[in-house]
Write a structure and sequence with these properties.
Length: 324
Amino acid sequence: MFKRISALVLAGLTAMSVASCGGGSGGSGGGDGSITMGFAQVGAESGWRTANTKSVQDSAKNAGVTLKFSDAQQKQENQIKAIRSYIQQKVDVIAFSPVVESGWDTVLKEAKDAKIPVILTDRAVDSKDTSLYKTFLGSDFVEEGKKAGQWLVQEYKDAKDQVNIVELQGTTGSAPANDRKAGFAQVIGADPKFKVIASQTGDFTRAKGKEVMEAFLKSNPDIDVLYAHNDDMGLGAIEAIEGAGKVPGKDIKIITVDAVKDGMQALADGKINYIVECSPLLGPQLMDLAKKVVKGEQVPARVVTEETTFTQEQAKQVLSSRQY
Ligand code: AHR
C-alpha cells in the first residue's frame, strides 16, 4: 500500500517538473499557443534604438506575443537585473540586446538552468559556451565597418597626402563599437596614407558625439574625415563642426552607420557624405524565432540582417519612404 502511494506521489512530482520545463507560466510554455517574452533593451540612446524598440513592441502585438519590456539605460547591471526578474517570472523566452559583449555567462547559465531559451538580438556576447543562447539575430558589424572603409579608400584613391581621420566610437566594449572599428581599420590599414589621428567613444549619443568632436577639433586643426559609428554621434559632430566655422561634408567628410531618417536627411543635404545601413527592424524575425525556440524547433545559430549603403543621391530618392 505504502509502495503504491509513494509511486503515485513520485509520478505526480515527475509530471510537475516536466510541465515546468517549457518555461513556465509567466507564459504557458507555448502550450496554448501563447508566448510571454521578456525583452531587456539596451536603452534609448539613439534614433536607431527608438526604432528598434518600436519594431519589437509592434511585432509582439502583431504576433500575439505578450511582451515584458525593460530599458537598461545603457547599464549592464540593469540588464542583468531585468533578465533575472524574467527568469523569476518564468517567461517562455528571453531576448536581449547586450549593452557590452563580456560578462554574461553567469546570468545566461541561470536562464539555461531554468530551461528558458535566450535569443540575442542586435548585439553579440563573447561567451565561449554558445549553448547559453539559441540564436543571434542582427547585423554583421565588421562588414559595416568594412563598407565604411571601402567608401573612404575609393573617395581618396587619387590623394597623395596623408588623410587625417577622427573616429567616434560607439559604447566602449559593445559589439558594434568593437566590430565597426575593426572592420574599418582592416580596410584602410592596407594603405599607410590613411591615419586615424584620434579615436574616442561618443557612447552612441548625439550629445556625446558633439562634445567629443569639439575636443577633437580643438586639438587637431587638420581633420579630413570623421568616421562615426552611428548617425546620432555624426549629427552631434556636425553641430560641433559648424560651431567651429567649418562646413560638414566639405571641409570634413563624414561617414556614419545606421541610416535613420535624421541621418538620411543630413546625407541628402550634403552634410554627411556616406551612410552604411544598419537595420533596427528586427521585431518580425525575432517573433518568428521566438515561436520556434519555444516549440523546441531548430533555428539557425546566426541570422544576419540584410543591409545596404547610401550615397547622397540614393538618400534623396528613398528619404520620403524611410520607415524610421
Ligand atoms: O547595436 C546597434 C547600434 O546601437 C546602433 O548602430 C546605434 O545607433 C545603437 O545605439
